[in-house]
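Marked as duplicate of an earlier ticket. Keeping the data here for the record.
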Amino acid sequence: MAPFQPKKVVICGAGLHGSALAYYLTKLGHTEVTVVERESVACAASGKGGGFLARDWGSGVTEQLHTVSFALHAEIARDLNVSSYRRIKVLSVSPGDAGLRRGDATDKCPWLDGDRVDSVGMMDADGGAQVDPCELCTLLMKAAESQGAKLVKGCVGGIEMEAEADGLRAIRAVVVDGTPIPCDGVAFTMGPWTSLAEEWLGIPIPITGIKSTSIVFRSSKDVEPYALFCDEDDRFGTHLEVYPRSSGEIYLCGVGGSEHVSPERLRAGEYPPHDVHADLGRVKAAAESFSTISKKLGKTEPDEAQACMRPCSPDAMPLMGKVSGVKGAYISAGHNCWGILWAPVSGKAMSELIFHGSAECVDLGAFSPARFMPEVKGGRGRKKRNMSVGEQW
């Protein structure tokens, strides 16, 4: 039997994963694609993340996601003229004691000229890159629209399904602002807010939102391209990651004080995308910490302070695949701190799953949403379709 192929697909969420899915679906020739976004393209983490890409940092089942997606980023940057994409060296930095400076850190990074640098080492000389996620997301969505995809502003409030003879439920519509949009396929790419679909689909979607603050400094001069991963700075409770961009922006995260927002709180309506704000105490701590390792770029006050929520599952791996028991339903969410890196491969793999019935570029088996289904005891006897009949053991 040929695999089911939805004719009309609605993608819920216009962040990087929704935009990448729309991009790759339309590249396959699927033009009946509608992307629904309640605020704006890249309005959440996809517009506020750092954009660090690492080719060789995966392990086990995630190694394929790193290597394949790293190559896809370069391909997209070329095809869509992503101006912010570039390769970048990665350094490790240890903050030093007060007034102590050991070694000449500026030999390794010209703007690492503060008086609290203990040591500097090379973490990755040729496997790092970066991109401005907002630019990337915007370009992916525009490319998808140019191939026939539609972008609709509205709030997804549920889905409509219909029981079929084989015992499965089939997607019939996505309800947006109270109005059904007819479709036979739906993909949930709403980051941490994908947990809202748990009640609609009737399956566990245990995605927690990790709310974290980040800050941005701006320089009028070019900043040499070195990404920094800093050890814990006990003075300020920070663990800084520093990403200078080709635009002159210097993006900092790892500022400490992240809040874990449970799926229950998200389903109750806490923290919609427009209500995720920076922790001002962590803003101050990050700015002060950075100023002690870079006098050249650091300031007392950042030019921008913001926050976003990363979606994280209990095993820290994404949920990507078909929804068990629901024909035409798919999930691609929970990519945690690698959401920007993994967006291209996730979009490509999910487009193959929807269009062809299986992913070809990577193996999605380990990321199936079904892994969080409760264990069913017994049920190993006769079946009539999906219903147990007679003695079970």
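See parent ticket for discussion. The chain has a mean pLDDT of 93.
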